[in-house]
Amino acid sequence: MKSTFLKITLMSFITIGAFSCKNTEKEAETTVEEAAQATEMATEYSVDAAASQINWEGAKPTGKHHGTIDLASGTIHLNEGKVEAGSFTFNMNSINVEDLTGEDKANLEAHLKGTVEGKEGDFFNATEYPTAKFEMTGIENNMVKGNLTIKDKTNPIEFPATVSIEGDKMTLKSETFEIDRTKWDVNYGSKSVFPSLGDKFINDTIKLNVLLVATKA
Fold this sequence. Notes:
Layout: H1 2-29, E1 43-47, E2 53-60, E3 63-79, E4 82-97, H2 102-113, E5 131-140, E6 143-150, E7 153-166, E8 169-174, E9 177-180, E10 205-216
Antiparallel strand pairs: 1-3, 1-10, 2-3, 2-10, 3-4, 4-5, 5-6, 6-7, 7-8, 8-10, 9-10
């Protein structure tokens, strides 16, 4: 009897310890760093919202959809051709679906934006959260690092990108990268959040591609 009690107690401690380790690892993965600050020597570039764009792609077992999101504003600070700091916001009410037309296009865009009554929180709820924001924390070996805020949730992300300068114009172009939407409480159709969905789920990952064009202020 005493031996059984000791085994149960030991297993409880192991379980609690493992759970604590997982929590610690999760917290370490989602540590949000301070946004990078530009030096006095840096030159400010203003984002050209009309020339900039974010491309997105979402998928599920039966297919996928893709589209764009417009940037609203932003600034980038360069020092001797190197990015020191930067941030930009994008307009969540501009979510556009490119692979559908007519009523199908309008319905999916409304669902993604959260303008369908009773389904406002399924995806991005753009009425309550009209903008999202990205703040750079640094660039290392062409890897852009920063904090992405969607629906008032902030998580660190990173993606490979190239920066080019031509006259007074600067272009930052990323490679395609992925984010896990559930980290920003975009949970609709997520099998990791709702395990009973079977094969009627939407992938947690969203593919993104960023084109950022800015001109010297």
